[in-house]
Amino acid sequence: MNTNPYLIEFYNHYDEDQRLVPKHGSVEFLTTMRYIEKYIRPGDRVLEIGAGTGRYSHALARRGYSVDGVELIQHNIDIFRKNTLPEENITICQGNALDLSAFPDDIYDITLLLGPLYHLYSKEDKEQAIREAVRVTKQGGIIFAAYVISDGCLLDEGFHRGNISVADYVREGLLDPETFGAKSEPKDLFELVRKEDIDELMSVFPVTRLHYVATDGCALLLRENIDSMDEETFQLYLKYHFATCEREDLAGVTSHALDIFQK
Length: 263
Known about the structure:
Protein name: Class I SAM-dependent methyltransferase
Keywords: Methyltransferase, Transferase
Order of helices and strands: HHEHEHEEHEHHEHEHHE
Mean pLDDT: 91
Largest sheet: 8 strands, mixed
Shape: globular
Strand content: 15-25%
Helix content: 25-40%
InterPro entries: Methyltransf_11, SAM-dependent_MTases_sf
Structural class: alpha/beta
GO molecular function: S-adenosylmethionine-dependent methyltransferase activity
């Protein structure tokens, strides 16, 4: 199994299970679930590729759906199993998004690819992960593919918080000095892309895009403000976010995006 040692080290020490719990983190979760619920039907079978600790898999299994999970990192699998309730119709196995040969063609109604594309750096690997997700999905089934978006991360982690040095990234060749487009390597952990990169990647697949969603919008950039909101204000913010998360003029100002397409 091809593994990135930087990735294993990161997830062995990162609390992935809690990432989507704070108000600002829940925006991504609630948005993704909102779109899944738009398409999922009673009796549907779900595959989550790169299931992590199972935040989405468990949420769907607890709603009565049959869910299979595939996860690369053993540490995440251990937490996934720990969080499994007896009544859940759910499985988890260790595997790689690039090789789902353990799964037959055309068997899942809903396929979630909500993490692997964060950590694939070549066009060939990204295409292979999407090809495998498409293969195991039924004709007419829906695939949800998530990405980390460079501009949202640059605004939040770079210019706003100073957790990354934009100047250093330019000097090191990780940011184009004219366009500020990003490029990443395995040691950088996350592959940062823009919508035009996703459009180019998807152009070779015989699928129909249903939605392109700025999954968390400005939630990370505004995290302190959002976390301090009372419940009424937070619900109003969510209503605003849901109303604007597919607007093309706001598509780049997000840290995560969700590409939803039909086989």
